[in-house]
Amino acid sequence: MQRSLEQRMAIKFCVKLEKSVAETIPMLKKAFGVDCLSDRQIFRWHKAFAEGREDVNNENRAGRPSTSTSDDNVKRVRDLLNTDRRLSVRLISETLDITKTIVHEIVSESLEMRNVCAKFLPKKALTDALKEIPENDYRADFDA
Question: Record's superkingdom (predicted)?
């Protein structure tokens, strides 16, 4: 993303210097090497800047916005997990009619929970509980 933004700025600079597309392409290929934009993209951006475009950023694209991790869905998953922390991602997905990947993202990222012994627990609670175990007891469990 950043690399293509730099190249668009370079194209805009070439247009301001009244360089043709034929002059601009070799300069960009020399400067950016294998990371250079395609000839078609260079033509498109050169034409846009020559016609008066000032903004080097891409325009927002039309499309469906991501609504899957909305506050409403996060609240629904949180409420369901508060009733029973042993629910699986698959069961939550089926109950709330949300895809499994989105449920997993909500549980792990938004709610910051992990699945431990088939129970979802907050990450902080898990690390605090592990810190409270004396080191000798912890080692004894693994040495046996």
Answer: Eukaryota
Distance in angstroms (rounded) separating the CA atoms of residues 133 and 41: 59
Q: How far is CA 32 from the centre of its chain?
A: 26
Rounded-to-integer distance, Cα 38 and Cα 45, Å: 11
Q: What is the pTM of this model?
A: 0.45
In order of their start, the domains of the chain are 2-50 (1.10.10), 71-132 (1.10.10)
**Quick one: which of 33, 1, 36, 35 has its CA closest to 11?**
36
- Looking up tokens 């088939």 gives 118
- Segments in the chain forming alpha helices (H): 2-16, 21-32, 39-50, 71-83, 89-96, 100-105, 123-132, 135-143
Cα separations (Å) of 91 from 10, 45, 77, 94, 107? 52, 49, 11, 5, 13
Residue pLDDT, tens place only, 41-70: 999 999 999 999 999 888 777 766 666 778
